[in-house]
Amino acid sequence: MGLLGTKLEAGGAAPRGAGRRRRLRIGVILRRAVAAILALGLLYVALVFVLGLAYAVLTPVSTLMLARWLALKPVERIVAPLEEISPLVPIAVITSEDSRFCQHSGVDWEALREVVEAADEDGPSRGASTVAMQTAKNLFLWPGRSVIRKGLELPIALYLDFIWTKRRMMEVYLNMAEWGPGVFGIEAAARHYFGKPSRALQRREIALLVTALPNPITRNPARPSPRHRLLANRLMARMSGAAPLTSCVRA
After folding, report:
1. Distance, CA of 198 to CA of 98 (rounded, Å)
2. pLDDT by residue (tens digit) across 140-177?
3. What is the pLDDT of residues 213-238, one digit of tens each?
């Protein structure tokens, strides 16, 4: 009996030891996974930090442009300094997209609070994305709606607004915004849709281009739908008294 009991105890110890080793291996794998995620996060932060500084003077490239190049799809883009773009373009963008552009520090907390307070159980009915937040998305993030992406937009927008001038922010935004499949920047958009440089755009053409931005894939500035024309007309009416809103981007 003593020998049999010893064998049974020895036989029962092996599974307990194997289970303990499996738990240890799982623990090691989890720790390594967490360490890898943290390392990637730090690398991403460093990349944003360095590229943000570099893009203060260098021509930036958006994630959408990179995606098209990697997919071997064409990209239309003509980089234009702000002084070569019609001064009505920043007025239209600020009026339409970010009326407190010159006052906030990259995030319009007041507009964001209004959106959160107005949200119903299906989520916010409108956005509160500033020019800086859209620039952060275009440079470092991905398209589509996501709480995670929106959460990342906020600190990146604050950082870019801190290290760039407002004039540079507007210049980068206008040279990266997508105005149709593969059409990036106001200069390429002006030539693509109206056959002229951006400095020669008329007020109505600018309004049609800017009101296409929320949905550039389906809104064609050269062939606007009745609703698109209505939005452009409303924007032109609002632009007439909006010049003071753009003081921070004037030369």
Report:
1. 21
2. 998 877 788 888 999 999 999 999 999 999 999 999 99
3. 999 989 999 999 999 999 999 999 99
Angle between helices 203-212 and 88-97 (to 10 degrees): 40
* Residue 220 burial (C-beta neighbours within 10 Å; 0-12, 13-18, 19+): middle
d(CA 141, CA 146): 11
Q: What is the pTM of this model?
A: 0.84
- Give the domain ranges of the chain: 19-54, 55-249
Give the integer Cα–Cα distance in Å for 158 and 105: 6
Neighbours of 195 (CB within 10 A): 9
Distances (CA, A) of 17 to 3, 5, 21, 25, 27: 21, 19, 6, 12, 15
Burial of 171: CB neighbours in 10 Å, binned 0-12, 13-18, 19+: buried
CATH architecture label of 55-249: Orthogonal Bundle (1.10)
Residue type, 148: I
* φ, ψ for residue 87, nearest 5 deg: -65, -15
For residues 185 and 196, give the distance between their C-alpha atoms in angstroms, rounded to a whole number: 14
